[in-house]
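ok, trying the design again with the full structure, not the truncated one.
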C-alpha cells in the first residue's frame, strides 16, 4: 500500500488528537492543515510537523493530499465534505456528520458518484473491542429479545461555546448522544435487526436557558430489540452499559474507551458463569485513519466499522430524539 497523505481541516482540540495519533497508524502521514484562519493552520502545522498549510480551498486544491479529516463544528461538516469529495479526496468526518438525516444524503451520494471513501468517525466502532462485541451479540447465547443500556455524559466546565449554541447544532444529543445511539445501532445490526425499523420512543430531556438540550434520555425500539440511551453535557453519566439477551448478559464496564485507547474488555454472564473477555487495544484515531486508507487502496466507498447504513440510522434516530424534546 502507498502512504495516505492526510490533511486536517479544522486545527482545534480534536484535530490535535488526530495529528498526534497519525504517526502510530500503519498507512497514514499528516501532510497538510487547513483552516479559515491561515495563521492558525500554519501554527498547527508547525506544531505537528505537517509540510503545508493554508485555507480550506487551498488545501483541497492540492494534488498531494489523498484524504481529509474534518474536525470542525458540526454545522461546517457538510460543506467541507462535499468540497473534499469534489476535489477527489477521501473523507473521514467527525460525528455527527450533519444535524439532520436529510443533510447526510447528498454527501453519501457524492461519495458514491466519486467512488471515494466517506467514513463517520465514531471512534468506539474501530478496533478489537467492537468486533468482539458484535460477534458476541450474534452468538446464539444472546438469542431472543435483545436489550441494550448505554449512556455518555459529562459536565461542561463553561456554559458557552459551540456546545451551548443552537446555531452551531449544540446540545447533548448532537454532541455525545451519538455514542450510545451508534453503539445501539451497531449491536442491532450485528443481531440481524433491520435498521430501518429502529425508532425513538419515550424521549425526555431538559432544554437549558441557552436553547440546547443539556440532558436527554430515550428508548430505541424495533421488533426483538430495545435500547435505553442517555446523554448529557451538564452532568456526569456512566460510560458503562449492558447487552441482555434471553440466556446471557454482556456487562460493558467501559463501552466507548477513550481518545487514547479503545475499550479493553467486557464480561459475559451466562450459564451461571462469569467470563472476562480481554482484548487488545488500539489508538482509535489511528484505527479510523487506517480504515479510510484501506478503503481507498481497495477502491471501496465504505468502511465496515461504520458503514453508511449505520450513519443513516444514527442520523435519523438523533434527529427523532432531538425533535421529541420540542414536543
Amino acid at each position: 500500500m502507498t502512504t495516505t497523505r492526510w490533511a486536517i481541516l479544522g486545527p482545534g482540540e480534536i484535530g490535535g488528537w488526530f495529528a498526534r495519533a497519525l504517526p502510530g497508524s500503519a498507512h497514514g502521514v499528516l501532510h497538510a492543515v487547513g483552516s479559515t484562519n491561515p495563521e492558525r493552520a500554519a501554527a498547527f502545522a508547525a506544531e505537528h510537523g505537517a509540510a503545508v498549510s493554508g485555507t480550506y480551498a487551498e488545501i483541497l486544491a492540492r494534488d498531494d493530499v489523498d484524504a481529509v479529516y474534518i474536525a470542525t463544528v458540526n454545522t461546517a461538516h457538510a460543506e467541507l465534505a462535499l468540497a473534499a469529495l469534489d476535489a477527489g479526496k477521501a473523507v473521514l468526518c467527525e460525528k455527527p456528520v450533519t444535524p439532520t438525516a436529510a443533510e447526510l444524503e447528498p454527501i453519501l451520494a457524492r461519495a458514491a458518484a466519486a467512488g471515494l471513501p466517506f467514513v463517520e468517525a465514531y471512534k468506539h466502532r474501530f478496533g478489537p473491542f467492537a468486533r468482539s462485541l458484535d460477534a458476541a451479540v450474534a452468538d446464539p447465547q444472546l438469542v431472543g429479545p435483545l436489550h441494550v443500556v448505554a449512556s455518555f455524559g459529562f459536565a461542561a466546565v463553561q456554559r458557552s461555546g459551540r456546545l451551548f449554541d443552537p446555531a452551531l447544532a449544540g446540545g447533548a444529543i448532537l454532541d455525545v448522544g451519538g455514542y450510545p445511539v451508534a453503539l445501539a445501532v451497531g449491536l442491532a445490526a450485528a443481531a440481524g435487526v433491520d435498521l430501518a425499523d429502529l425508532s425513538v420512543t419515550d424521549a425526555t430531556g431538559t432544554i437549558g436557558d441557552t436553547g440546547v438540550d443539556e440532558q436527554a434520555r430515550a428508548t430505541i425500539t424495533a421488533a426483538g430489540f430495545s435500547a435505553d440511551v442517555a446523554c448529557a453535557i451538564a452532568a456526569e453519566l456512566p460510560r458503562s452499559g449492558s447487552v441482555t439477551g434471553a440466556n446471557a448478559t454482556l456487562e460493558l464496564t467501559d463501552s466507548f474507551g477513550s481518545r487514547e485507547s479503545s475499550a479493553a474488555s467486557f464480561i459475559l454472564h451466562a450459564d451461571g458463569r462469569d467470563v472476562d473477555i480481554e482484548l487488545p487495544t488500539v489508538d482509535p484515531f489511528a484505527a479510523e485513519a487506517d480504515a479510510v486508507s484501506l478503503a481507498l487502496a481497495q477502491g471501496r466507498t465504505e468502511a465496515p466499522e461504520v458503514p453508511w447504513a449505520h450513519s443513516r440510522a444514527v442520523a435519523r434516530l438523533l434527529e427523532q430524539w432531538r425533535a421529541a424534546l420540542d414536543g
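Keeping the full-length input from now on. Residues 172-190 form the longest helix (19 residues).
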